[in-house]
Design a protein that fits this description.
The chain is of the alpha+beta class. It has a single domain, classed as Alpha-Beta Plaits, CATH 3.30.70. The protein has two helices and four strands, in the order βββαβα. The strands form two sheets. The protein has a two-stranded antiparallel sheet with strand order 1-4. It is globular, with a radius of gyration of 12 Å. The mean pLDDT is 94. Keywords: 4Fe-4S, Electron transport, Iron, Iron-sulfur, Metal-binding, Repeat, Transport.
Protein backbone atom coordinates (compact mmCIF):
# COMPACT_ATOMS: atom_id res chain seq x y z
CA UNK A 1 0.00 0.00 0.00
CA UNK A 2 1.07 3.56 -0.52
CA UNK A 3 2.01 5.65 2.46
CA UNK A 4 0.11 8.60 3.92
CA UNK A 5 1.37 11.64 5.83
CA UNK A 6 -0.94 12.44 8.74
CA UNK A 7 -1.84 15.79 10.30
CA UNK A 8 0.99 15.22 12.81
CA UNK A 9 3.35 16.49 10.07
CA UNK A 10 5.39 19.51 11.21
CA UNK A 11 6.67 20.36 7.69
CA UNK A 12 10.27 19.76 8.67
CA UNK A 13 11.28 19.06 5.04
CA UNK A 14 13.06 15.82 5.91
CA UNK A 15 10.93 13.38 3.89
CA UNK A 16 10.60 15.10 0.52
CA UNK A 17 14.26 14.94 -0.60
CA UNK A 18 14.57 11.34 0.63
CA UNK A 19 11.83 9.92 -1.61
CA UNK A 20 13.45 8.05 -4.52
CA UNK A 21 10.19 8.16 -6.50
CA UNK A 22 9.52 11.89 -6.08
CA UNK A 23 6.16 10.98 -4.57
CA UNK A 24 6.29 13.59 -1.78
CA UNK A 25 5.44 17.26 -2.29
CA UNK A 26 4.08 20.13 -0.27
CA UNK A 27 0.29 20.17 -0.12
CA UNK A 28 -1.94 23.05 0.97
CA UNK A 29 -1.01 22.61 4.64
CA UNK A 30 1.39 19.68 5.04
CA UNK A 31 3.46 17.38 2.88
CA UNK A 32 1.51 14.83 0.84
CA UNK A 33 2.39 11.53 -0.82
CA UNK A 34 1.21 10.80 -4.35
CA UNK A 35 -0.11 7.22 -4.10
CA UNK A 36 0.51 6.72 -7.82
CA UNK A 37 4.24 7.22 -7.28
CA UNK A 38 4.70 5.71 -3.81
CA UNK A 39 6.14 2.19 -3.79
CA UNK A 40 7.10 2.26 -0.09
CA UNK A 41 10.64 2.33 -1.47
CA UNK A 42 10.23 -1.14 -3.03
CA UNK A 43 12.91 -1.34 -5.70
CA UNK A 44 15.14 1.11 -3.86
CA UNK A 45 15.41 0.33 -0.13
CA UNK A 46 14.28 -2.31 2.35
CA UNK A 47 12.19 0.17 4.36
CA UNK A 48 10.55 3.46 3.39
CA UNK A 49 13.10 6.24 3.78
CA UNK A 50 10.47 8.86 4.55
CA UNK A 51 9.45 6.93 7.66
CA UNK A 52 13.08 6.51 8.71
CA UNK A 53 13.88 10.24 8.56
CA UNK A 54 10.60 11.57 9.98
CA UNK A 55 11.25 12.96 13.49
CA UNK A 56 7.63 12.47 14.64
CA UNK A 57 6.54 8.89 15.39
CA UNK A 58 3.59 7.50 13.42
CA UNK A 59 3.30 10.51 11.13
CA UNK A 60 3.84 8.51 7.93
CA UNK A 61 1.58 5.47 7.93
CA UNK A 62 0.20 2.94 5.44
CA UNK A 63 -2.66 4.54 3.51
CA UNK A 64 -5.79 2.52 4.36
CA UNK A 65 -7.47 3.65 1.14
CA UNK A 66 -4.64 2.58 -1.21
CA UNK A 67 -4.04 -1.09 -0.42
CA UNK A 68 -1.38 -2.77 -2.58
CA UNK A 69 0.52 -6.02 -2.25
CA UNK A 70 4.30 -6.18 -2.37
CA UNK A 71 3.95 -7.59 -5.90
CA UNK A 72 1.84 -4.60 -6.97
CA UNK A 73 4.41 -2.21 -5.49
CA UNK A 74 7.14 -3.99 -7.50
CA UNK A 75 5.07 -3.70 -10.68
CA UNK A 76 4.54 0.02 -10.06
CA UNK A 77 8.29 0.46 -9.48
CA UNK A 78 9.16 -1.33 -12.74
CA UNK A 79 6.67 0.73 -14.77
CA UNK A 80 7.92 4.03 -13.25
CA UNK A 81 11.55 3.04 -13.66
CA UNK A 82 11.13 2.30 -17.34
CA UNK A 83 8.94 5.33 -18.08
CA UNK A 84 11.37 7.68 -16.27
CA UNK A 85 14.19 6.34 -18.45
CA UNK A 86 12.40 7.24 -21.70
Amino acid sequence: MALLITKKCINCDMCEPECPNQAISMGPEIYEIDPNRCTECVGHYETPTCQKVCPIDNTIIPDPIVVESNEQLWEKFVVMYHSDRL
